[in-house]
Design goal:
single chain, alpha/beta, Membrane-bound Lytic Murein Transglycosylase D, Chain A, 5 domains, seven-stranded mixed sheet, 16 helices, 22 strands, 30% helix
Length: 601
């Protein structure tokens, strides 16, 4: 395996970290902007301000700040501008998408949807009277019903061996773009027997003969196989700042230096490349230092070697990722986003992969687990104002599942900011298990909350679902977590008792003289998964992933192709605390829950 690597000449040595963070009063920004369909505060960070303090001041979840500002995950400094969601805003607007039909005018569209032309121009930047067929216009929903569109008469076309999109479109006297509009998410990778919506014509009554201008149909393991593949790794190394690293200064942690933030992600990938090499996969690897700088990213895309790329991992920041993802879409190259859960990054791009599960997928897996493990339990969802939307979504899904399955689950929702612990207590069952899903975080709250729940566990059987962020709180009592049978949903789980994991840790330690962190495991799993996908199925591997279930270290990938975009991972894990260890609850569910016994003095 030929590797073309960008090396980072860094020795990592640190013994500890000493830091002092002083709280300061956060001044709420007076500047707001309408972005997407929501209002955001535009906050300029002052020296010393932290994400935690900002989240508290603006009454939002820390995750909402990270989601709107992915670059803030690595830390913030004075002068950085952040978007912070303006919660409980009565002016929040919902939109629907309208694609302009031939002959439509802006006035006609506004009239049909009972809105003003000014409303359309307000919420569609750059929109003028000159509109073109197929152009997307966001329509703000009004109280008046929109006219029901007349359904177009359609039929189904069954893909024959060797047919191409161009040939099918030509057969029905439409363009490829019109065919894709009828079939959101349709790509050039057609499958034999695939059903495609087409305009109704008399042609459907006649035998259809494949056209001569054809492309090969994907046959997993047979088509698209190449003797060698090219992979682009786009990782933020900040090489221009590497020379400021001072390994003699033991007061600074690794996170002090941007150049070291994702070094273990790269090292995990290199461990996987060694495994792939031994498996006989021929890879050519190009490693690029890609940060938030759009200009340097564009320069990389113009490099001659980039034209031969078969797979792209990264970039890790949203602006650069979107730029490269557009290139990947145009050139039909799969691109992997390792860390974000933002759906927009895979929308309208059939070649983009999002590895983190969405809240909807998380909700489904949690409710399914609770129904299966504790079928007649009380399910109590606890939230504050800022988590209300998530809580409503969770309860709505749980209620729908209860109705659909005629389940014995009893579902309650508690607004802790209004009812406090009394709201939880009044919904507890004396006879059945009480599953309490708590969407609130914050170390001070959690410490007090756990103490109160632990007192209730002497009289009530309790299973607590906690936020993963709680694991970062050093003040939490581990005894409480175990007494409350605490479960956590996560995209990953590392079983350090597993022999495969132990082998990886030992090899990593021997190679890099340090223990692997989360990024190292993630880099290894991503490279191993997609590397073997290339080996087994070639460059057409996205169409074959339903046949592919490799054993990985910390992650399970179960990709679903979205109709209007790329691939989203639906698989996460649930683990619980027991005997001072984290146990995979999906594989080893604890069905029998007992009351906590008070210790004798």
């Amino acid at each position: 395996m030929k590797l073309i690597r960008t090396f980072l000449p860094i020795a990592i040595l640190f013994l500890g970290i000493s830091s002092h963070v002083f709280s300061q009063k956060i001044e709420i920004s007076k500047r707001t902007e309408f972005i997407g369909n929501k209002y955001y505060y535009i906050h300029t960070v002052k020296p010393g301000e932290t994400i935690y303090e900002l989240a508290k001041a603006y009454s939002v979840d820390i995750r909402q700040i990270y989601s709107a500002n992915p670059e803030s995950v690595k830390g913030i400094q004075g002068g950085v501008i952040l978007k912070i969601l303006k919660v409980n805003n009565p002016d929040e607007i919902t939109f629907i998408n309208h694609y302009v039909d031939k002959g439509e005018t802006l006035y006609k569209i506004a009239t049909n949807y009972h809105v003003k032309v000014d409303d359309l121009t307000k919420f569609n930047a750059g929109l003028t009277d000159k509109i073109n067929p197929g152009q997307l216009i966001k329509i703000p929903l009004s109280d008046k019903p929109k006219p029901e569109p007349k359904p177009a008469k359609q039929s189904l076309h069954i893909v024959q061996k060797g047919e191409s999109l161009f040939a099918i479109a030509k057969l029905y006297n439409i363009t490829v773009d019109e065919l894709k509009k009828l079939n959101p998410g349709l790509t050039d990778n057609l499958q034999l027997g695939q059903q495609i919506k087409v305009p109704y014509t008399e042609l459907v009554q006649k035998p259809i003969t494949p056209a001569k201008d054809t492309i090969p149909v994907v046959e997993c393991g047979k088509t698209g196989i190449l003797p060698s593949y090219t992979v682009a790794l786009m990782i933020p190394f900040y090489l221009e700042r590497a020379d400021i690293i001072d390994t003699a200064n033991t007061d600074n942690s690794v996170s002090t230096y941007q150049s070291l933030l994702f070094i273990q992600f790269y090292e995990g990938i290199r461990q996987a490349l060694d495994s792939l090499d031994r498996a006989g996969l021929s890879l050519k690897i190009y490693t690029y230092d890609v940060t938030e700088d759009a200009q340097s990213t564009e320069a990389i895309l113009k490099k001659p070697e980039f034209a031969s790329v078969n797979l792209i991992i990264g970039p890790l920041f949203s602006k650069s990722f979107q730029l490269v993802a557009n290139w990947a879409k145009q050139h039909a190259v799969p691109i992997i986003n390792p860390f974000t859960n933002q759906y927009d990054l895979i929308k309208d791009n059939p070649f983009a992969f999002k590895l983190n599960t969405s809240f909807q997928s998380e909700t489904k897996q949690m409710i399914d687990f609770v129904e299966t493990t504790y079928p007649d339990c009380n399910l109590i969802i606890v939230h504050n104002d800022k988590e209300k939307e998530l809580a409503d979504s969770l309860k709505k899904y749980a209620d729908a599942e209860v109705a659909r399955k005629n389940s014995k689950l009893h579902v309650f929702k508690v607004d802790y900011s209004k009812e406090w612990m009394a709201g939880v207590t009044k919904n507890l069952s004396d006879a059945n298990v009480n599953v309490i899903i708590t969407l609130i975080d914050g170390e001070a709250f959690v410490s007090s909350y756990l103490r109160n729940l632990n007192e209730l566990a002497y009289q009530h059987k309790i299973v607590l679902f906690a936020e993963k962020t709680w694991e970062d709180y050093s003040s939490l009592d581990v005894e409480y977590l175990m007494n409350l049978n605490t479960h956590i949903y996560s995209n990953s789980f590392i079983n350090y008792q597993d022999s495969i994991t132990q082998t990886f840790v030992l090899n990593f330690r021997n190679t890099y003289k340090t223990d692997p962190n989360f990024y190292a495991f993630q880099g290894y799993d991503i490279m191993l998964y997609f590397g073997h996908a290339l080996k087994n199925f070639g460059k057409n591997f996205p169409a074959c992933l339903s046949k592919y279930h490799p054993v990985l270290l910390e992650t399970n990938f179960n990709f679903k192709k979205n109709l209007d975009g790329g691939y989203e991972n639906l698989s996460g894990t649930i683990y619980r605390y027991e005997n001072y260890r984290a146990i995979n609850a999906l594989l080893n569910p604890k069905r029998e829950i007992n009351l906590v016994e008070k210790k004798k003095p």
